[in-house]
Amino acid sequence: MFELLIFKILKNISFFIKNSVMVPLPSSISYMWNFGSLLGLCLFIQIGSGLFLSLHYNSNVELAFSSVIYMMNDVNHGWILRVIHANGVTMMFIFMYIHIARGLYYKSYKLTLVWLVGILILLLTMGTAFLGYVLPWGQMSFWGAMVITNLISTIPYLGVTLVEWVWGGFSVSEPTLTRFFSFHFILPFVILGASALHIIFLHKYLSSNPLGLPKTDMISFHPFFTVKDILGVVLFLFSLLFLSLTEPYKFMDPDNFILANSMVTPVHIQPEWYFLFAYSILRAVPNKLGGVIGLLMSILVLALFLFSNKSKSQESVYYKSFCWVQFTIFMLLTWTGSLPVESPFLEIGQCLSVMYFLNMFLLMYL
User: Fold this and answer.
1) Which of 228, 308, 316, 320 is catalytic?
2) Is residue 49 within 8 Å of 84, Cβ to Cβ?
3) Under a CB-based contact definition with an 8 Å cutoff, are residues 237 and 37 in contact?
4) Annotated binding-site positions for heme b
5) What is the reported pLDDT for 313?
6) Catalytic: which of 110, 255, 272, 280?
């Protein structure tokens, strides 16, 4: 009986090594393919640091802000855990956007199931990040939650009911914070499961490559690509620690260091930088429902690439040129989203929003 158990364990270990460490990959893969493994490392850092922070966090509206201050000042090494958790999500979104951009540039959307699960991971990550942004219960946390959850009210017939269900009442209050904390704790494990599914599909259909050639010249992941991944991991950890130790609050809004006050509205309510491109599209549409649709489509438009031109040739000069145009539009939308809702920034955002979707459709059918 014991020998049979040992045999099964060894068999499972052999299967894992064969299907992960020794998986065949195209020999032409460059460092642009490192960001998938870096995202996995980011996820584990976020889960690990978040578990320790959750031990000291209190979701009561009277104590939430104080519990964050307590973590920073009185918990041993609590300050470094908090800034690593906060800056880790910044690094994670940087890597995620580069990962998606690489997928578009090299037409990785031809791997249908891999692409679809990747979009699901993006949506789950954005939702988790928004829920976490509310937890410190600062001014921007409270008003950001108020504005974003109110968007649900645009849903015909059910909108108001759904908003009240999300709030747990008739305004953003303690039940809202408790629910957000619960979902923020659970969703990372859902993302972990989706990431495992993402990797399973990737290993089944095999990775794309910069040359777009048939999958013939294959080499094993270890040791040829583990060296590249280790180099990326070292650079990432150095960057995260450098940012956390020298500029720990670089990407945090100053208003969020003020206790939430429902009677004082911030001058300029805006989300974190990684949502600004979608926020710019949201406010570019005068109609509230239209803005919400534009917000959702700014992300879901990626799924439409499954119906695009899937020619094997990846050397189209026009296609790659428009990829760089799309990158420029994305950066400009992020910039306009950080600016006040006034002329000429509003008009610039509207023009860029039209260009964003137009260029996406050009990429699909070039």
Assistant:
1) 228
2) yes
3) no
4) 85, 99, 184, 198
5) 47
6) 272
- Give burial (CB, 10 Å; 0-12/13-18/19+) of 97: middle
Q: Write down how long the chain is.
A: 366
Q: What is the pTM of this model?
A: 0.90
Told to judge if 311 belongs to the known catalytic residues of this protein, a careful annotator would answer no
For the question of residue 272 being annotated catalytic, the response is yes
Tens digit of pLDDT for each residue in 196-235?
999 888 888 877 777 766 666 777 777 667 888 888 899 9
SS3 218: strand
The string of pLDDT tens digits covering residues 155-199 is 888 888 999 999 988 888 899 999 999 999 999 999 999 999 998
Q: Which domains does the chain have, with CATH numbers?
A: 32-209+219-265 (1.20.810.10), 270-365 (1.10.287)
What distance in Å separates the CA atoms of residue 236 and residue 199, rounded to the nearest whole number? 21
- H-only helix segments in the chain: 2-16, 35-54, 64-73, 78-105, 112-134, 139-150, 159-167, 174-205, 221-224, 226-246, 276-284, 288-300, 317-337, 345-365
**What is the identity of the amino acid at 54?**
S
Catalytic (active site) residue 228: yes
